[in-house]
């Protein structure tokens, strides 16, 4: 642990300003990452909302321009021609009640589920399995839809979901340390813009209170909010 502590302390010394511009933060985060694996770069946004009130819940999706580094495995649960549509759009598995039964049997080899509205009665039986993993299809995130082809393509292209937690913070991955700094900057910028756009009408006062970006093991780097507000 002492060795890891020394590495972290050395990394933390690289962060020598109270706040950075987004474009300056990413090269620093890459430099400060010291783990032997390809660390995930995550954005944490503290928002001026109270998620206990339904009208202040902040959630949505964004297609990151450069994805997350790996293509997600997508399952489509549909009926009729929509099964074929899902397969042709690139779904890893596409079917109906057979897929539901497979998942009930313990199969979980996928990262996202897209379903047509008519199949939600069957999909509802998977709530206890998919819900805790954040995989339950939802109309708000575009994963319950008749346009399965579009939904599959978006997920494959790097669509991610964001949701404020009970403490008022959104945590969302925007790539890996191995990514080009410019690509990380553009991914983070797309996420931040989407969260700002999703501001609830009932949110009062300062909406974005802080933004901190870090790699899995590295130190947090605070982002200058005035530059973000100017861009928004």
List the helices and strands and how they pair.
Layout: H1 2-12, H2 22-32, E1 40-47, E2 59-63, E3 74-77, H3 81-88, E4 93-95, H4 97-104, E5 112-115, H5 120-123, H6 127-130, H7 148-157, E6 159-163, E7 169-176, H8 181-197, E8 208-215, E9 221-222, H9 225-231
Parallel strand pairs: 3-4, 3-5
Antiparallel strand pairs: 1-7, 1-8, 2-6, 8-9
Give a written overview of the molecule:
The chain is of the alpha/beta class and 232 residues long. It has 9 helices and 9 strands. The strands form 3 sheets. It has a 4-stranded antiparallel β-sheet with strand order 7-1-8-9, covered by helices on one side. Strands 4-3-5 form a 3-stranded parallel β-sheet, sandwiched between helices. A two-stranded antiparallel sheet has the order 2-6. Strand 3, helix 3 and strand 4 form a beta-alpha-beta unit.
Oligomer: single chain
| Whole-number mean pLDDT | 91
Helix content: 25-40%
Silhouette: globular
Largest sheet: 4 strands, antiparallel
Number of strands: 9
- State the separation between the terminal residues, measured CA to CA: 42 Å
Q: Main sheet: which strands, in order across? A: 7-1-8-9
Radius of gyration: 20 Å
Classify the beta-strand content into a percent band: 15-25%
> pLDDT below 50 for ≥5 consecutive residues: which ranges?
none
Element-by-element helix/strand order: HHEEEHEHEHHHEEHEEH
Structural class: alpha/beta
- How many helices in DSSP terms? 9
